[in-house]
Amino acid sequence: MKTRIWIALLAVYLVWGSTYLVIRFAVETLPPFLSAGLRFLVSGLLLLAWRYPAGDALPTLSQWRSAAIVGTLLLLGGNGLVCWAEQTVPSGVAALMIGAVPMFLVLADTLRPNGVKPTGRVLAGLAVGFCGIYLLVSPSEFSDGLLLNVFGVAALLLAGMLWAIGSVYSKTADLPKSALMTTGAEMLAGGLSLMLASGLSDEWTGFSFAQVSTHSWLALAYLIAFGSMVGFACYIWLLQNAPIPLVATYAYVNPLVAVFLGNWFAQEPLTPRILAASAIIIGAVVFINSAHRSRVQRAAAPAESE
After folding, report:
1. What pLDDT is attached to residue 297?
2. Handedness of CA 214, 219, 224, 225 (dihedral sign)
3. Angle at 295 between CA 294 and CA 298, to 5 degrees
4. Residue 208 included in any domain
């Protein structure tokens, strides 16, 4: 069992860590919202076609509504904006900023009705983490000559916040009991939202599939087969068979994998500024998660002693 756990964990590390670089290749000749829309439409249909014959019930009307809200927030607001931003922002930088999603989760959970208020340790972690983001994106003397597109940076910050809002909403939403059926429904709904955004943003004007390079088609195929199918299947299996703290390490490892892959395969910059920001952001996320686990354990202790 341990061997299978580590194989699945390594797959999540490498597959999800590599998707940021592969997205960059996909959007070289495919419009960003269109590429993401095709990815999640196909992935969602494949998951539904797999799980329904396996015995999973199709979502009810209420569950489809919840899946549409979650899928739109996560896949249009989160992934779609990442694809759009990667037209101008290095994939490694995008991964680092999305790696800070646990910080946005704290904010989203604080702002929701009856939300959990952060402790002093969590607030300290947030302060350190946002200092790391500022170091990464600020046009200052620390820039190492790397000036990031302000609109791309803004899109990534918005993507992180929308992903966090969708994640918090999904905790109490009416969704199917099967995690894979839920994922398929959210992908299908999110894919439709992305295709609508593609049309509204005028991506189809002057576009022809004949102009899409083989490189971009292969990137899209990888995102569907590995990023969506293999990655999610391994992640869901890990949630059922491995300790949650171990599974959660993907949030720390994926940004580092993305940074180094971007440097190795796309010659993206790997400067002291990026390395320092990486250490600060990931360290802050680790600190916030450990503080949250300590709080949960303390809250559970009296109940266990009874």
Report:
1. 53
2. positive
3. 85
4. no
> What phi and psi, each to the nearest 5 degrees, are found at residue 278?
-60, -50
Range of the domain at 22: 2-202+213-305
Q: pTM above the 0.85 mark?
A: yes
Q: Pick from 229, 227, 231, 211: which is nearest to 219 by CA? A: 227
pLDDT of residue 249: 87
Q: Is residue 32 within 8 Å of residue 216, measured between CB atoms?
A: no
Q: What is the mean pLDDT, run by run of 10 residues, along the chain of 306 residues?
A: 90 95 97 97 96 95 97 96 96 93 89 82 91 83 70 95 93 92 96 97 92 96 95 89 84 92 92 90 89 57 44
pLDDT of residue 85: 97
Q: What is the pLDDT of residue 292?
A: 63
- Tokens linked to 3: 């061997």
Residue 145 sits at φ, ψ, to 5 deg, of: 80, 0
Cα–Cα nearest to 27, from 156, 215, 261: 215
- Count the domains in the chain: 1
Query: Look-up: residue for tokens 């600020």?
Result: 138
CA atoms within a 13 Å half-sphere pointing along the CA-CB vector of 125: 24
In a domain? residue 207? no
Residues ≥6 apart with Cβ < 8 Å to 250:
9, 12, 13, 16, 235
Task: Say which residue the tokens 């999110």 belong to.
Answer: 190
User: What is each CA distance from 262 to 49, 154, 186, 291, in whole angstroms?
Assistant: 34, 21, 29, 31
Task: Judge residue 45's burial from the number of C-beta atoms within 10 Å of its C-beta, 0-12 exposed, 13-18 middle, 19 or more buried.
Answer: middle
